[in-house]
Amino acid sequence: MISERDTSLDARLIRALQRDGRATIQQLAAELDAPRSLVSDRLRALTGGGTVRVLAAYDPAFVGQTVIAHLSIAIDRAARPVARALAGIEEAVLVSCVGGLHDIVLEVRVDSNEALGAALHRVRSTPGVTEVRTQRYTGILKGLFIPRYDGVSGTDAIDRHLVELLQRDGRASYTSLARAVSLSAPAVRARVQRLLATGIVTISAVETRGALGRQLSMGLGITLGADSSDVLRALQEDPAIEFAAECIGSFDVVATIAAATSSDLLGRLDTLRALPGVLRLTAWQHLELVKEDYYRQMA
């Protein structure tokens, strides 16, 4: 049975891994002020049990995914089969069954407006889908895989092989990576650090929601007033906000908030509602995450 101490440590450990997915046990122990052996044990339990995945993702701009949109979907039948069908759409990186105004939310990443239109057609053509509302992101304020690409740096075949391996296991050792690409461990370390420093890839922790998840998660759609600076700053500074993006569509901002209890969620929602720049806040609860997959293979 997991103690309250371990639960608290797990939450802080996950946040640390979201900031730096390749932080060493020593670095994590120092940041969390906890024994190395305990940190190592909890990390092994979280990753081995499926609660947390540490993985690499290409920056959307680097792979040409310059158009990112959030779709709110209404359906006329059971949610799981429809969500699984939508998860088969290649451009969909996230699919979640939700409770609220709509039934399923989906995030798509594509390279053009034409491709977005084609993806929307596939979504609307999925049996069971009755309505799709689209919010196109104009800027990502906060997130695990926020764009950081410097716009200049590139990759070679070895870099791409390394990223492919890191997309499967973001904490793979430099020794195992070196063996896979026939280079020395120091050479591989230098390549991985360059990929991270130039923003080509980000390595972060993704926490499983639903049955294995340790936290409640809600999506937010926020309508803003003329002066929105305080709201945007609050979203960026609140540690409970996992993701936030300005957008065009039904909402001005789409965000994700997570908390350990429903009472904590309510308190944080009320705090956001009270901000002068918030005209309206709509919320939906994530019930089951069907897909979260940022894997992309470069030619």
From TrEMBL:
One annotated GO molecular function: sequence-specific DNA binding
What's a BP term from Gene Ontology annotated to this protein? Answer: response to amino acid
HTH asnC-type domain segment(s): 156-215
| Keywords tagged on the record | DNA-binding, Transcription, Transcription regulation
Cite the InterPro entries for this sequence. Answer: AsnC-type_HTH_dom, Dimeric_a/b-barrel, Tscrpt_reg_AsnC-like, Tscrpt_reg_AsnC/Lrp_C, WH-like_DNA-bd_sf, WH_DNA-bd_sf
Any Pfam family matching the protein: AsnC_trans_reg
One Gene Ontology term, aspect cellular component: cytosol
Record protein name field:
DNA-binding Lrp family transcriptional regulator
Record organism: Zhihengliuella halotolerans
